[in-house]
Amino acid sequence: MKRFLLSAIALVVAFAANAATAVETTTFQGKIAVGFETIPEIDDNSDAATVVFSKMDDGTYQFVLQQFSFSGLVIGDVTITKGLNAEEKDGTIVLTTDNVEAPVTNSDMAAMLGGKVLITMKATIKEGKMVAELSNIHVNLSGTEMDVTAKFESSSSTGINSVSTASAKASRIYDLSGRELPAMQKGLNIVKMANGETVKIIK
Fold first, then answer.
1. Which of 17, 92, 123, 199 is deepest in the core (most CB within 10 A)?
2. Per-residue pLDDT of the chain (203 residues; tens, 9 = 90+)
3. Which burial class, exposed, middle or buried, applies to 63 when counting CB atoms under 10 A from its CB (0-12, 13-18, 19+)?
4. Exposed, middle or buried: residue 175 (CB in 10 Å: 0-12, 13-18, 19+)?
5. Gap between the Cα atoms of 141 and 1, Å rounded
6. Measured CA distances, 24 to 60, 62, 149, 155, 167 (Å)
7. CA nearest 81: which of 63, 58, 66?
8. Angle at CA of residue 157, ends 85 and 192, nearest 5°
């Protein structure tokens, strides 16, 4: 029994050591519209929503739609990590998923959903703002299945530091994928300063 407990503790410690942690996070505040067939448009009646986008220390990315709800049902925090692709094109960061399982937490509905939903998404981040279109959000509530669509548009973001390139004493510059760059490029640059601080600079 003692040997079993020691093995279980070692397994938990190893799992915790391998868990990815966020190294850079941007929070987008905006509105969300939810539909059932086509992707809806944002209007004055759309609900407030928050998306947290993070780059993890293992090179992956995380998209969290906080407290997602529709028709009065609070689904909870929908987290997309597995299957989330991110690339930068012409100053725009493009995030995509294709029918991936997204864990659902932080709600009473999470257990009823089996702790997950299937989701397809395309999001863009440009000039500090995010637009995300979510389709095929497959929800199974106690045998009742439905496919939900949603559109999120941010009005602001926090967590991106914009500094003058002239005053920045950069030691290394990286793109969103973690590749080192010879100089700052148009779009989002991740800059490790000479003092060890890491900042995001939009050029």
1. 123
2. 444 433 434 333 333 344 567 778 888 999 999 998 899 999 999 999 999 998 887 888 899 999 998 878 888 999 999 889 988 878 888 999 999 999 999 888 888 888 888 899 999 998 889 999 998 887 776 677 788 899 999 986 665 443 333 334 556 788 777 888 887 777 777 777 766 667 767 65
3. buried
4. middle
5. 40
6. 11, 10, 28, 20, 21
7. 63
8. 70
Q: Is 20 in a helix, a strand, or coil?
A: coil
- Cβ atoms 86, 94 nearer than 8 A: yes
| Residue of 39, 187, 79 lying closest to 124 (CA atoms) | 187
Contact between 119 and 91 under an 8 Å Cβ cutoff? The reply is: no
Q: Is 34 exposed, middle or buried (0-12, 13-18, 19+ CB in 10 A)?
A: buried
98: its two tokens: 């294709």
pTM of the model: 0.68
